[in-house]
Design a protein that fits this description.
The protein has 8 helices and 13 strands. The chain is an alpha/beta fold. The chain has 2 domains: 4-120 and 233-261, NAD(P)-binding Rossmann-like Domain (Rossmann fold), CATH 3.40.50.720; 126-230, Dihydrodipicolinate Reductase, domain 2 (2-Layer Sandwich), CATH 3.30.360.10. The strands form 2 sheets. It has an 8-stranded mixed sheet, sandwiched between helices. Strand 1, helix 1 (14-25) and strand 2 form a beta-alpha-beta unit. Helix 1 (14-25) crosses helix 7. The longest helix is centred in the middle third of the chain and has 14 residues, at 161-174. The radius of gyration is 20 Å and the shape is elongated. The chain starts with a strand and ends with a helix. The relative contact order is 0.16.
Length: 263
């Protein structure tokens, strides 16, 4: 069987470089090109030192001949990838967050009309996906829920897509709304955080973090804490490789790595 030909969008960024390295070292995969709107070069060396790949500013120029395009840029970049890749028959693996409901509907239409696969996940760390699963299972036993997420200082959206997915999993598991008592005197505005179906959400941004999510459930006389930390960007790569492999055996839109993991 021929190797899977992979294009990495945002290839010069931190996540793009991790994806390129993971694909370059994965059995049965070949990185064939990269795309980056900020590129000032027309090629880069592969991490293993066994050749170079072209780098294009326009994703439309990069997708020719690709089986799968991977994107970890932002919502705008993700939409550009899906619009460019699906009509060529290339599948997409999207890790960018900030996509709207309309974007998901457009992705579904693109995948179905072009008989391709588009996989979108808020988090590719398997531990984080398992955390959402465990949160959903535990939620019905508790009345209070506080969720804290902390990411690196350059992350543009808050809360994170993973935090939103965790809060939604809690709401689905609860099949209702948690109690979220308001402060009688809020001495600093918004101290209590955001609110999603009664799940109180707090976002932090600072250097030294990659991705931290911690859910604390509370009830009379007890708390339950479920926490996941991504220590570095390598933590996402097994999930990315899993999604690339899975994209060839499915069509349509798949949202969440949990579907691929069989949770």
């Amino acid at each position: 069987m021929a190797n899977i030909k992979v294009v990495v969008n945002g290839v010069l960024g931190k996540m793009g470089q991790e994806v390129l390295n993971a694909v370059n070292n994965a059995e049965g995969m070949d990185p064939i090109a990269g795309s980056d709107i900020a590129s000032t070069v027309d090629q880069i060396a592969l991490p293993t030192g066994n050749g170079v790949i072209p780098v294009h500013k326009n994703i439309k120029d990069a997708v020719r001949g690709a089986d799968v395009v991977v994107d970890f840029t932002n919502a705008t970049g993700a939409k550009s990838v899906m619009e460019a890749a699906a009509p060529t028959g290339a599948n997409c693996v999207i890790g960018s967050t900030g996509l709207s409901q309309a974007d998901f509907e457009a992705a579904k239409s693109l995948a179905e009309s072009n008989n391709t696969s588009i996989i979108i996940a808020p988090n590719f760390a398997m531990g984080a996906v398992l955390m959402s699963h465990l949160v959903k299972e535990a939620a019905r036993f508790f009345d209070y829920a506080d969720l804290t997420e902390v990411h690196h200082e350059a992350k543009i959206d808050a809360p994170s897509g993973t935090a939103i997915a965790i809060a939604q999993a809690a709401a689905e598991g609860k099949d209702g709304t948690f109690e979220a008592p308001a402060a009688e005197k809020e001495l600093i505005k918004d101290t209590r955080g955001g609110n999603h179906s009664g799940v109180v959400v707090h976002s932090g941004r600072m250097p030294g973090r990659v991705a931290h999510h911690e859910m604390v459930f509370g009830s009379l006389g007890q708390t339950l804490t479920i926490r996941h930390d991504s220590i570095n960007r390598e933590s996402f790569m097994p999930g990315v490789i899993m999604a690339i492999n899975a994209s060839g055996s499915s069509t349509g839109l798949t949202v969440g790595l949990d579907k691929i993991m069989g949770l």
